[in-house]
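Hi everyone,

Forwarding the result from last night's run.
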Amino acid sequence: MMGPIARGTIRTSGVLGLRLLVQAGTLLLVARLLGPRDYGAFAGVSSLALILGTLSTFGLHLVLLGEISRDPARREYMLARSIPATLVCSTLLLAIFLGICLTGLREADLPFRVLFAIGATEILLQPLLSLPACEMLARGNVARSQLLATLPLAFRLIAAAGVALFAPTDALTMYGYAYPAASALALMNVFLVVPESYPRFRQWRWPNAAEWRKAAGYAASNITASGPAELDKTVATKLLPLAESGIYAAGQRVIGAATIPLIAMMLSAFPRLFRESQYDAERTARLPRWIFAVTAAYSLIFSCTIWFCAPAISRLFGHKYAEIEIMLRWLVLAVPGMALRLAAGGLLLTMGKPWMRVSFELSGLGILVVTSLTLTTRFGGIGMPLALACSETVMAVVGIVLVALARNPSHP
């Protein structure tokens, strides 16, 4: 018989499979609608917004996850602190995002109204949506939490289809307006999905110093975890011609699909790992080894599949993206490292070692920036997947070593 993690992984994989279909449909529609140049600009800016958006909750959504996993009665207490903190942090980060785009990312050449729409979506609306999603996850409703997270993506697919149907002259601006509307609709749906009421304004409280310190490690790990998967697209927008960066961004989104089943596995294991890793190490001693073995085998199978399917994927994107076939075959070099890095980072989080995760992923971000500058200068567009592969491989190796050290009782 299958264990609860295996059953949870299968159920969650089904939901995330739906999410994958939605993301794939949106990617194809938006990429074909905007063309490589505009898509490169959109991907670079939205990736920057997504990275900053990981700081919007300042890690309190993961504190919420851990607290409710151990004691469901802590729900109202944690939400009353997480909501106001998220609103304040989001507002500050949105201002920072707009400043960076207007001064340091002029290559994207996007109108201010589009920049604001993208920033409001990824920095304000999506982080607010992560709070009820983490609450459901903490209660063991993994598939349900992912359905909630998939909802704004489904609305984006509908919006992209609508824009493609009307074929406006300025498709980028039209889709930019629909982008925040999709997340706003999903957030409104939370009040229908979650049976419990949320803390009222007069119940809101500012987290105390101890709670901020506890959340800080998670906040840092959030930004370093998303950075390797998103920063490369922003860097590509800066270093490459926009059309070439659009082809790279589209290919990297395809490769990013490799993480979907792995996310399902880690999400299914999270509640158990949070409960037991600090109190019952013997019971979970074999779980990290099992996770790493499954991750390694899966990543190799996925890499081979993408290699052979690259011509068919290229045809789906259309003739404007003909070069994506070559890009995909270079990008598969990053898949094993990407998958193992994700597994190592998730394990360190649940073991109460978020700063260990921050250390190895932060070093990976530095490697990504340095190798991107070096390799794109020498090899052009192909330098970006090579830089990504270098970064992900180093992070995976260091992450696995840190997990082994953290599980050693003699380790401080």
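The chain has one domain: 4-407.

Cheers,
N.
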